[in-house]
Structure formats: C-alpha cells, structure tokens
TrEMBL record:
It holds the Pfam family Semialdhyde_dhC. One of its GO terms (biological process) is isoleucine biosynthetic process. It comes from Polystyrenella longa. Its EC number is 1.2.1.11. Keywords: Amino-acid biosynthesis, Diaminopimelate biosynthesis, Lysine biosynthesis, Methionine biosynthesis, NADP, Oxidoreductase, Threonine biosynthesis. This is Aspartate-semialdehyde dehydrogenase. Catalyzes the NADPH-dependent formation of L-aspartate-semialdehyde (L-ASA) by the reductive dephosphorylation of L-aspartyl-4-phosphate. Pathway: Amino-acid biosynthesis; L-threonine biosynthesis; L-threonine from L-aspartate: step 2/5; Amino-acid biosynthesis; L-methionine biosynthesis via de novo pathway; L-homoserine from L-aspartate: step 2/3; Amino-acid biosynthesis; L-lysine biosynthesis via DAP pathway; (S)-tetrahydrodipicolinate from L-aspartate: step 2/4. Belongs to the aspartate-semialdehyde dehydrogenase family. It catalyses: L-aspartate 4-semialdehyde + phosphate + NADP(+) = 4-phospho-L-aspartate + NADPH + H(+).
Length: 334
C-alpha cells in the first residue's frame, strides 16, 4: 500500500473518473491528495465519504507523495511531472507527452505488466484508441504471431474533451432547429457527420492520432517492425470508441478459435451473435471497463486473415481505468 497518492488533474473529465474508480475499486492508501489548476484550487470535493479540498498544482506540491496519477494536457505534464519524479514519486501519466520517450514505460497491465514494475519514474498510459486495439490483439498474437494490422476507428466526441461533447449536443440541436452553430472543438460540423481527421497532418498523409496507434502498438507489444496501418475518424457518438480491426497472422486462426481466445483473456468480453443482432455498441458499452469484441470472421481476402469489431469506453479503459489498473499493479508489488 502506498502512503500518499496524489491525483493530478483531479477536477477534469478523466480525473473525475479516476477518483470514482479509486473509490469503486477500493484502492487503499494512507492519504489522498487532489491537485488541480488554480481555477479549481480551494473548491471542495467528497472522496470515500470524506471532504477534501482541491490543491493547486505547483512544482512543490509533490513533497511527501509516493504515487502520482496524472491526467492533464501534454504541456502541463511536460512542465510539472518531472518535478514529481525529482521528489521521488512513481508517476502514472495519461498525457501523450512521454509515451514514446525511450526511457518511459508504456503500459497496459494485461499486456506488459513487467514494464511497469521495472519502470523508473514515469509510466505512460497509451492513447485510448491504441489501448482497446492492443488488448484485443494480444490473445491472438500469443496464439499465432501477428504480422500485419489494419484498423479503422470510429471515435466518440468525448475523446476531444468536454468541449467535444458540448459541440455534439449543441451542434445537433442547432442542426435540428435549422440554426447556425459555431463549433469549437472540431474544424467541421460533427452533428450528423463523420470527420476523417483526428490530430494534425504528419508524414505520408497520416494524422498524429493514426501514427500514435502505429508507434504505441509496436512499443507496447515489443514488435518494432510490426506492420500497422490506421485510419481515425470522428463520429457523432458521445462516448465509446469503435474499431474495425483486420489482422494477418503467421498461421490461420479460425473465428471459433478467436472467440475462445478472446473469451479467455482478462478484460475482454465477447458479444458475437450476428443472427440475433448481438454485437458491441457504444450505447451498451458506455460506463464499462471491458474491451468488447464481436463480428468475428475470417478475412476472405487473404489466407491468414481475421476481422472483428471492437468497442470500449475511451474515458474508462481508454484512459482512467488503465491508469488505476497500473496503480493497482504497483501497489500489489510493493
């Protein structure tokens, strides 16, 4: 058990879920602290039935803290988390800033727990769309090594923050009322639309979000040469990311075997009955910590191909839950 745990970004959307999960999962520590921006500092919150006060995030705020769970924008993480490391804290970081740095572990506990246990300083949690995909890839790869991955994502507006969801709700209402609406989180209307760009333009016509999935997948799985191609699309769904995933493996995996492998893997739930219209939907997976898979079928375009559909709550397993699971792993191995 850690003596003192600090949640950084505790008043934000993911920070609120981290607090909720620490309560739900009965994560134990002798003391909790909740750090936030100057705007939130001084406000009260209730945690485990007790009243706490948000403290302002400063470089000196980490003294006496053993574990930091941080969910902040990249620039805030870059500025403040090195101070936590200097103060001797273990740090779990939800931002994207440290993920691909060579000396930083990038961890999904079901996939590479030892990397977290061996880490010095900062442990990064992956991008939300990467997390659910890699969880689904792992049991297949363990059975027959994966040689190629093609993934298209259908990402919820909550992945663009509170303003993204506000744009969906208010933009939809404006559309139905035949009124104009000025979108703030998106460069195109999201209501009744699909935007095939998430992130900035990068090399070879890919976006930053797409390349995150490529590079993070390779790092987490320890497969630096794995062939991965992604297309990331924002759709008018409030929460839960969906993905179509096609893999090629060294030897064929039948749909029946894939269902068996998925079902036996921790953190995966199989919903796969096409005849009865049973498969994962964002509306039914919302609020869950699981990764859901369905529509499992042979890829008829190649000999060793398998295709499936994957849905997960991007604010939970894609962010807060993964961070809390890393914290649990560290606590259990003190």
């Amino acid at each position: 058990m850690f003596d003192t745990v600090a949640v950084v970004g505790a008043s934000g959307a993911v920070g609120q879920i981290i607090r909720q999960l620490l309560e739900e999962r009965k994560f134990t520590a002798k003391k909790f602290r909740f750090l936030a921006s100057a705007r939130s500092a001084g406000q009260k919150l209730t945690f485990n039935g007790e009243e706490y006060t948000f403290e302002e995030l400063t470089h000196d705020a980490f003294e006496g803290v053993d574990l930091v769970i941080a969910s902040t924008p990249d620039d805030i993480a870059a500025e403040y988390l090195p101070s936590a490391v200097k103060a001797g804290c273990k740090v779990i970081d939800e931002s994207g800033y440290f993920r691909m740095k060579e000396d930083v572990a990038l961890v999904i506990p079901e996939i590479n727990p030892q990397d977290a246990l061996n880490a010095k300083g900062i442990i990064a949690s992956p991008n939300c769309s990467t997390t659910q995909m890699v969880v689904a890839l792992k049991p297949l790869h363990d059975f027959s090594p994966i040689t190629r991955v093609i993934c298209s994502t259908y990402q919820a507006t909550s992945g663009a923050g509170v303003q993204g969801t506000a744009d969906l709700h208010q933009g939809s209402q404006a559309f139905l009322n035949n009124e104009s609406y000025e979108y703030k989180a998106f460069s195109h209307p999201i209501a009744f639309n699909a935007i095939p760009q998430i992130g900035s333009e990068k090399e070879d016509g890919y976006t930053s979000e797409e390349l995150k999935m490529v590079y993070e997948t390779r790092k987490i799985m320890g497969l630096p040469n794995l062939k991965v191609s992604t297309t990331c699309v924002r759709i008018p769904v409030a929460n839960c990311h969906s993905e179509t995933i096609t893999v090629e493996t060294e030897s064929p995996i039948s749909p029946e075997k894939a269902r068996e492998l998925f079902a036996a893997f921790p953190g995966i739930t199989v919903m796969d009955n096409l005849k009865n219209g049973e498969y994962p939907l964002p509306s039914t997976c919302d609020g869950s910590d699981e990764v859901f898979v369905g529509r499992i079928r042979k890829d008829i375009s190649c000999d060793n191909g398998l295709s499936f559909w994957c849905v997960s709550d991007n604010l939970r397993k894609g962010a807060a839950t993964n961070a809390v699971q890393i914290a649990e792993l560290l606590s259990e191995n003190l």
